[in-house]
Amino acid sequence: MKERNYPNPPDRRYRQNNDSTPGNPPRRPRVAPRNFQNPTPPVETDSYEDIYTEPARNDAGANGQVLDLTQLKEMKIDELNKIARGLSIPAFSGMPRQDLVFKILEKQSETVGLAFASGVLEVLPDGYGFLRSPKSNFLPGPDDIYVSPSQIKRFGLRKGHLVSGQIRPPKDSERFFALLRVEAVNFESPDLTRDKILFDNLTPYFPTEKFNLEEKVNIPSMRIMDIFAPIGKGQRGLIVSQPRTGKTIFLQQLANAIAENHPEVHLVVLLIDERPEEVTEMERTVDGEVIASTFDEKPERHVQVSNMVIEKAKRLVEYGKDVVILLDSITRLARAHNTVMPHSGRILSGGVDSQALYEPKRFFGAARNIEGGGSLSIIATALIDTGSRMDEVIFEEFKGTGNMELVLDRNLSDLRIYPAIDINPSGTRKEELLFDKSTLSKIVALRSILSDYNPTETIKFLLEHIRSTKNNAEFFKKMNR
Questions:
Q1: pLDDT of residue 17
Q2: Three-state secondary structure of 123-192
C-alpha cells in the first residue's frame, strides 16, 4: 500500500497566527474593552471620574420640571399625604415621615427630569457620608443622600458642611438617592472649601461686638440682661437655673431678640432631653433653626444630634459667619455623654465618669470670637438644686468655663416675679469691650446702688423703672435726674 505524506500536525499549544512559531508564541490579540460596569454595593454610587465626565445638564429635565428635595422635606405631613394620594402610593398613611418623603421622591423622579437636594454632611468611619436633614433633626433615614468617598476627598468635605447639588435615584441593589454633582458648599463654590482655615487653627479673642437685645416690644427680661449680663458675638455664657424659674421662656425671648435685631446671624436652638410639647412651642415661637432630641430617645441620639450641630456651626464660622447656639441644657448633654462613654474606672462624686465631661466641654469651649471675622456664641442653661448630686458635679465642672453668667432665682419665681434674675451674681467678663465708657460708668454706678438691696427689692426696682421707659437709653437718662 502506497504511503501518503501528511504535513506535520499543527502545534495546538500556540495560536496559528502568521508569526507564530513554537519558540516565539504570539501575543494575545487585543480585544476591544467591553462596556462593563462593576456591580455597585447597596449604598455605593458612581466614582468621581464617572460623575464628572458626564456632560453638564441644563437646569431642567426633558419635561422642563425640576424637583427640589429640600422643599419636599419642609412640607407638613398633611401636604405630603396629599401628594402621596395623588401619586397612588400604597399605605402612605402609616409611613413615618422620612419613609414617605423617600417614596414620593422615588415616584416623582420617574417623570421629573432633574432632582436637587441639600443637607448637612455626616461622614461615617468607612469614608462615605450622608446628607442629613435639619428638618428631621439629623435623624438617619431613607431620605438621606449618599455621598461617595471620592467626592468627599475631591472637595475636602468634612462633617458639618452644608452641601447642595444634583442627585440621582438609586440603581439596582441601592437603597439611597446619591449625590451626582456637588454644586455648592455652605452656599459658596465647592472649589473654595480647601482654602478655608480649620476652625481649631483660628485665633480666638474676647467678644467685642455686642448683641442688641432690645426689641420693638418692651421685654423687661431682655433689657435687664442687656444691661447687667450683655452678650457679644463669640460669648460663652451659662444661664444658671433652678427648676421652674422660667428658663424656657427666657430662651425663647433671647432667641427672638437676636433674630429680630441681627438677621445676619445663623441662630440654632438645641434642645436635649426635652419634652415634646416644649419642642413644638419652641418651633412655633422662634424664628430660627430648632434642633431637638426628646427625652424618649436614647442617649446616643442626644450625642449624635449635638455633634452634628456643633460641627455645622464650626464649618459656618470657617466661612466667616456669625453663629449663635442656644443650648437647653448642658447638664442633660453631659448626662448623655456619661451614659454613652465607656467607663474608665475612675468615678467622681455623683456617679460621673472622669472622662465623660471631655466632649461636653469641647462643645461648650468651641464658643469664641475669631480675629478677622466670624464668631460662635453658645448660651447654655445649667441646672442646679434638682436633688441630683450628678447635676451639682456637672455644674461645678462647668462653673468658671464661661465668660458670662446669668443666675435665675427660685425665690423670685415663687413670688411670681419674672424675670427671676438675681442681679448681683450675674455679669459678663470684659464687659468694657462691649460698652462705651459713658454707658459702662452708668452701669457701675447702678450696680453700686443695687448692691445694698436684696434680690427681691432689686428686681422690683428695676421692673418699675424699665416698664416706664421705652428703651435703656431713656432708662439711663431717667436715672440721671
A1: 45
A2: ECCCCCEEEECHHHCCCCCCCCEEECHHHHHHHCCCCCCEEEEEEECCCCCCCCEEEEEEEEECCECHHH
For residue 296, is it left (φ>0), alpha (ψ between -120 and 50) or beta?
alpha
Start-end of H helices in 404-454: 410-414, 437-450
Q: 3-class DSSP state for residue 110?
A: coil
Cell of 187: 452656599
Q: Above 80 in pLDDT, residue 59?
A: no
Residue 57's pLDDT is 40
Q: What angle do CA 95, 96, 100 make, to 5 degrees?
A: 65
123 Cβ neighbours under 8 A, 6+ residues apart: 129, 152, 157, 158, 159
- Grouping H, G, I as helix, E, B as strand and the rest as coil, residue 237 is strand
Q: Which three cell numbers stand for residue 444?
A: 457701675
pTM, whole model, 2 decimals?
0.81
Nearest to 128 by CA among 41, 197, 36: 41
Q: What is the mean pLDDT of residues 98-109?
A: 76
Interval 180-209: pLDDT, tens = 889 899 988 888 888 888 999 999 999 999
For residue 11, what are the CA distances in angstroms to 5, 24, 90?
18, 12, 67
**Residues paired with 117 in a beta bridge:** 165
